[in-house]
Design brief:
Radius of gyration: 21 Å
Strand content: 15-25%
Distance between the termini: 50 Å
Shape: globular
Number of strands: 17
Helix content: 25-40%
C-alpha cells in the first residue's frame, strides 16, 4: 500500500535534490518512492501542511539500558558515573530491568524523532541479559544497532576482551544485516591481547565496531596505538574524541572512521571540550549522540544546540567560522537523506506554532527554535510510530514498572529515595 505525506516543506538533506518549499512524499514497502508536488492519490495520506519534513534523527551513541535510571545523576563527573552507575547499579539490575530500560529509551527516542539509535550496550553479564536487551529493541519498532560490549566490572577483570556469547547473539538473534535491529561490537581500550582478540572477533562476525576515546595528553595517542597494533578497523565509530590532536584525528579520517560527539554530556561530566571544529578541519565525519539519560536529555534538539554553541564559540574565538546550522542538522541525522530509494525514516516537525513561526531559515528553525514538543509524526521504515504528537505504543504499563524499579533500588540503598 502506498502512503503519501502531503504538503510538507521538505529538507531532503540530499545535495542533489535540494529543499522543496511544498511537496509530497510517497512511501511504499518501507522506502521512499517519489518526492514532488501533487503526487497521484494513494490509499492512505498524511496531511503535513505546516510541517517541516526531515530525515529521522540518528543517535550514534546511547547507553539505552540506563533509561530506567533517567535523571538520577545530574551532578556526576565521569569518574563518579563509573563508580555509581556502572559498578554499583548495573550489577543490581535483572534481565527484566534491562529490558525495561532499553524499551523506555527506544520509546523516548521515537517520541523525540530519533528513528535510529546505536545502543552502546555495556552491560553483557549473562546471556539472559543480552537476550532481554535485544528483544526490547525489536519490540519497540525502532531502527537500532545493538553494539555488544562488556559490563564495566567484567571489562576490568578480563582486560577488555569480549566474551564468547556474542557469537550466539550473532547467529541466533541478529544474523540479518538488513533487519531493523543489527549487531556491532564495543571494543573498549584494553591490553594488546584483548585488542587483537576483539578485532579478530569483529572480522569473524563481519560487524562494525565502536569505542570510547578520551585522551588526556599523556602517553601514546589512543588511535596511534590501534594503528601500531594493526587493529584500526575501517568504519569504526570513535565516541567523544575529546583531547585528540590533529594527528590522531587524521588517522581516524584516513581509516574511514567517524566521531560520535555527545556535547551536552562532555561538558557536564568533564570529558573535555567537544572536538567539533577540530574534527571538521581534519575531515572526520561527525555525528551527534546523547550518551546517558542519567545525566542529560536524550533528544537531538539538546545536542544540536550544545554542538552549535560550542562550535561557534571556538570558531569565532579563532576568527574562522566553519560550522553552520545546516552542518549541525546533517550531524544530527548522520548524513541521512530523503530521496527515492532511501528507507522511509521520516519526521514531521510542526513549524506553525507560536514559538517557531515564521520560518525564515528552516535549518535555524529546527536546530535553534524547536524541541521534542514539535515532533508531530514519526515513520520508521514507512511505519507510523507517532502521529499528532502521540506515540502509537502504550507506554503506561512500562512507566509503572519503572516506578516500581525506582522504589526497589531506593529501598536497597542503591539509589536515593
Amino acid at each position: 500500500m502506498t502512503l503519501i505525506i502531503r504538503g510538507a516543506r521538505v529538507l531532503t538533506m540530499d545535495p542533489g535534490a535540494g529543499d522543496l518549499t511544498r511537496a509530497d512524499i510517497a512511501v511504499e514497502a518501507g522506502r521512499i518512492t517519489a518526492i514532488g508536488p501533487d503526487l497521484p492519490g494513494a490509499a492512505a495520506e498524511i496531511d503535513a501542511a505546516g510541517c517541516l519534513a526531515i530525515p529521522g534523527f540518528v543517535d550514534t551513541h546511547r547507553h539505552m539500558w540506563q533509561a530506567s535510571l533517567r535523571g538520577s545523576a545530574p551532578h556526576h563527573t565521569l569518574a563518579e558515573y563509573f563508580g555509581t552507575v556502572l559498578e554499583r547499579i548495573g550489577p543490581a539490575l535483572t534481565p527484566e530491568d534491562l529490558y525495561l530500560g532499553n524499551l523506555l529509551s527506544a520509546y523516548a527516542a521515537l517520541d523525540a524523532g530519533i528513528t535510529t539509535v546505536q545502543d552502546i550496550s555495556n552491560i553483557q553479564d549473562t546471556p539472559a541479559a543480552s537476550d532481554a536487551l535485544v528483544q526490547a529493541l525489536k519490540d519497540s519498532g525502532i531502527r537500532a544497532t545493538f553494539a555488544y560490549g562488556n559490563s564495566f566490572p567484567r571489562a576490568k577483570s578480563h582486560g577488555a576482551a569480549l566474551g564468547q556469547d556474542v557469537r550466539r547473539v550473532r547467529a541466533g538473534l541478529l544474523p540479518d544485516d538488513d533487519a531493523l535491529v543489527t549487531l556491532a561490537l564495543v571494543t573498549e581500550p584494553g591490553d594488546e591481547d584483548a585488542e587483537r582478540h576483539n578485532a579478530r572477533l569483529a572480522d569473524e562476525l563481519a560487524v562494525r565496531t565502536a569505542r570510547h576515546v578520551v585522551h588526556r595528553h599523556h602517553g601514546e595517542g589512543p588511535v596511534s596505538r590501534l594503528h601500531a597494533l594493526g587493529v584500526l578497523r575501517p568504519g569504526t565509530t570513535f565516541i567523544h574524541g575529546t583531547g585528540l590532536g590533529a594527528d590522531e584525528l587524521g588517522l581516524i579520517a584516513a581509516g574511514g572512521g567517524s566521531l560520535s560527539i555527545a556535547p551536552a554530556v562532555e561538558l557536564v561530566m568533564g570529558h573535555g571540550r567537544p572536538p567539533l571544529t577540530a574534527a571538521a578541519r581534519a575531515g572526520v565525519p561527525v555525528s551527534l549522540s546523547t550518551d546517558v539519560e542519567v545525566t542529560v536529555a536524550a533528544d537531538m534538539f539538546t545536542q544540536m544546540r550544545a554542538a552549535y554553541q560550542v562550535a561557534r564559540y571556538d570558531e569565532l574565538s579563532a576568527a574562522e567560522p566553519v560550522t553552520s546550522v545546516r552542518d549541525v542538522l546533517r550531524q544530527a541525522t548522520n548524513g541521512a537523506a530523503l530521496a527515492p530509494g532511501r528507507a522511509a525514516d521520516i519526521v514531521l516537525l510542526r513549524a506553525d506554532r507560536a514559538g517557531v513561526a515564521p520560518v525564515y531559515d528552516p535549518y535555524s528553525t529546527v536546530t535553534q527554535q524547536m524541541d521534542r514538543a514539535h515532533v508531530d509524526t514519526v515513520l520508521v521504515a514507512g511505519e507510523v510510530v507517532k502521529r499528532h504528537g502521540s506515540l502509537r505504543a502504550d507506554v503506561g504499563p512500562h512507566l509503572e514498572a519503572a516506578e516500581r524499579l525506582r522504589h526497589r533500588l531506593s529501598a536497597a540503598g542503591v539509589l536515593p529515595e
